[in-house]
Amino acid sequence: MAVALITGANKGIGFETAKQLRELGHLVYVGARDVERGEKAAATLGARFVQLDVTDDASVSKALATIDAAEGRLDILVNNAGVLGYGAVDGPTALHAFDTNVVGVVRVTEAGLPLLRKSANPTVVNLSSSAGSFWAVTNPERPEFNLPVAFYSASKAAVTMLTVQYAKSEPGIKFNAIEPGTTATDLTAAFGVGRTPEESAKVVVRWATLDADGPTGTFQEESGELSW
């Protein structure tokens, strides 16, 4: 039984990922900023709740300390929490998008590394996006070519680069960046597109449950490796 932490797990892909990991018999911590929603999601799943705001250092440290005290290790970390950063193209919007999507990954990963190093098969899945692929957004045949989400795209490109750098600096831990598929969630409601979170979570779970000799430092979508 693996010990897993998923950020932003009270809804969407994060919730479905937590659900599927629970169904596989793993011990899952639902990380969520909102206590009421997080506790409700955890109760629904038969999971455990930790209050975790990826933009708050103290919140992140407290959440990982709670898991450390209870479990003494962390086997799976899914950095799922994110924002679209859609709307005004200005400094505050950019700061919020990067603080959540990029710096949030750093905060949680750094706090989690000591626990991951205690695992026999530590795995980190970073939710990235094909919208952060230079290849996809410069290819007129790809839907990302016309996607007007500059901060989201730029922040997800940064997440993929962080994934590669962590994989190089932590060879004992698998780090992979995942494009889970265009999904109908609160995040994409403005565009009215996407499949169910359940379908996309299957992709995340597959990468969260790799064997010890699984790949690391890659950028993947459902059908295979994504071009950068």
Provide a short characterization of the protein structure.
With 228 residues, this protein is of the alpha/beta class.
Folded structure, characterized:
This protein is an alpha/beta fold. It has a single domain, classed as Rossmann fold, CATH 3.40.50. It is 44% helix and 15% strand. It has seven helices and eight strands. It has helices spanning 12-23, 35-45, 57-71, 91-116, 134-137, 150-169, 197-208, and strands at residues 3-6, 27-32, 48-51, 76-79, 123-127, 174-178, 218-221, 224-225. The protein has an eight-stranded mixed beta sheet with strand order 3-2-1-4-5-6-7-8, sandwiched between helices. Helix 7 (197-208) links the parallel strand 6 (174-178) and strand 7. Helix 3 (57-71) runs parallel beside helix 4 (91-116) and helix 4 runs parallel beside helix 6. The mean pLDDT is 93.
SSE blueprint:
Elements lengths: L2 E4 L5 H12 L3 E6 L2 H11 L2 E4 L5 H15 L4 E4 L11 H26 L6 E5 L6 H4 L12 H20 L4 E5 L18 H12 L9 E4 L2 E2 L3
Parallel strand pairs: 1-2, 1-4, 2-3, 4-5, 5-6, 6-7
Antiparallel strand pairs: 7-8
Helix pairs in contact: 1-7, 3-4, 4-6
Key structural traits:
44% helix, 7 helices, 228 residues
Q: Cα distance, first to last residue?
A: 34 Å
Known CATH architecture: 3-Layer(aba) Sandwich
Strand order across the largest sheet: 3-2-1-4-5-6-7-8
Structural class by helix and strand composition: alpha/beta
Name given to the CATH homologous superfamily: NAD(P)-binding Rossmann-like Domain
Low-confidence stretches: none
- The level-1 CATH class: Alpha Beta
Task: Report the total helices.
Answer: 7
Mean pLDDT: 93
Q: How much is the radius of gyration in Å? A: 16 Å
